[in-house]
Amino acid sequence: MTSDPAPLYGEHLAALQQRAETALARGGFDHLVIPSGTIHYQVFDDRDYPYAVNPQFKAWVPLTRNPGSWLVFTPGQRPKLIYLQPFDYWHVVPEAPSGYWPEHFELVVIRKQEDARQHLPGDPARCAILGEAQSALGEHVPNNPAPVLDYLDYHRAFKTPYEIAMMRQATVRGVRGHRAAERAFRAGASEFGIHLAYCQAAGQDTVELPYNNIVALNAHGAVLHYTELGRIPPKPLHSFLIDAGASFGGYACDITRTYASDTDGEFQALIEAVDGVQQRLSADFRAGRDYRQLHLDAHLALAGVLQEFGVLKVSPEAALETGVSAKFFPHGLGHGIGLQVHDVAGFAESDRGGTIARPEGHPYLRLTRTLQPGMVVTNEPGLYFIDLLLEELRGSAHADAVDWERIEAFRPFGGIRIEDDLVVTEGEPVNLTREIFAEGR
Ligand code: GLY
Ligand code: MN
Ligand code: MN
């Protein structure tokens, strides 16, 4: 597969136009109108929050730092980009649009945010306007019609070749960061130091990353979304879990790796066992597979690892049935990814709405759809020793299902998660993450 997005953009835009046409017909509208978004300010302060572009906007153009711009699509016409390039001597003004994409648009440059109004379709009632309330401009108020959003969001799960190339570029950055992070860990850096090494190598600052880096040493790995960034390395140093992504033109990658200080020790063996489970599961990420079943398969496989390492004393089936496996694997197997790390429409039954419920007892699963070619999803099984959940288990009727001494031995290591991003096909999936690690880029 190619990794240069540029030659693939035209086909991507054509696909979006086709989807938009159907979505508008579903909602009974004539125009699709998408504001890029606005700057938000902290309460009682003139300090702004990092700007986050409207994902519906960046689906069309690889612009992530352009508040106040608008996209207008009317079937049968060239899409129009109303591009704000303000007269401003306080900030760096966005460059004029350049690169592979502007030639596909009717471009209108405006100098003031309000000037977008005169270039929007005349009758706001005929427009599906997708965005946040704060983007309203006069009578052009975001209405986010459900039939339009349901259609677009459902189909956004299927990535165009351009989008996959964009995600591959994001992965190149992420993998560079992960390599540097492992080196920093082995050299004894603090969580903060590892985070800085990651950002330096990925070439991205925190606000550019698609989510806050999870850089967890020792037992911090047991906090699923640990984002504290400790300034002092713990002693002794046992383990390192890093869940960190990168972005490229608005697209994300999402990668997790876990390392042991002692590369001959038992925790290293446990990491390798989880890694083995993750790779075997990957082979089943193919068209026609129900993601809910993959999640349950992951429970059984991980419980098998716990049994093998003497933590679990009952069968994997019994552990799944009684909820014991969920004490060690309390999150979902993964999620769709693309313009958003946790992509939209993970539960969508169809492009007309509806919800596919999660299996009972698995409240954090983010994807319940059946896999189809072109979907990009994560595969991120994990095993953790989380005090809160272990206490629940100890106080439950299933306390005897585990060996508490073995748990005690693993608690200082926190947990393990291994996460890759996979492109679903009819056959073996394309593993974006491992491909780039293997290329040594
Ligand atoms: N980095 C958040 C997640 O893996 O879902
Ligand atoms: Mn993830
Ligand atoms: Mn992640």
Automatic annotation (TrEMBL):
Against InterPro entries, the record matches this protein to: Creatin/AminoP/Spt16_N (IPR029149), Creatinase/aminopeptidase-like (IPR036005), PepQ_N (IPR048819), Pept_M24 (IPR000994), Peptidase_M24B_aminopep-P_CS (IPR001131), X-Pro_dipept-like (IPR052433), X_Pro_dipept (IPR022846)
What's in the keyword line of the UniProt record? Dipeptidase, Hydrolase, Manganese, Metal-binding, Metalloprotease, Protease
- Which gene carries the instructions for this protein? pepQ
Query: Which ranges carry the Peptidase M24 domain?
Result: 166-426
Q: Which family does it belong to?
A: Belongs to the peptidase M24B family. Bacterial-type prolidase subfamily.
Give a short account of what the protein does.
Answer: Splits dipeptides with a prolyl residue in the C-terminal position.
Organism name: Luteimonas salinilitoris
- Can you tell which superkingdom this protein's organism belongs to? Bacteria
| Major enzyme class | hydrolase
**Details of cofactor binding:** Binds 2 manganese ions per subunit.
* Binding-site positions, Mn(2+) 2: 243, 254, 419
Which reaction equations make up its catalytic activity? Xaa-L-Pro dipeptide + H2O = an L-alpha-amino acid + L-proline
Which Enzyme Commission number(s) are listed?
3.4.13.9
Where is coiled-coil annotated? Answer: none
* Listed name of the protein: Xaa-Pro dipeptidase
Q: Which residues bind Mn(2+) 1?
A: 254, 335, 380, 419
For this UniProt entry, the molecular function terms from Gene Ontology, in alphabetical order, are: proline dipeptidase activity
Q: Which cofactor does it need?
A: Mn(2+)
Q: Where is the Xaa-Pro dipeptidase N-terminal domain?
A: 8-154
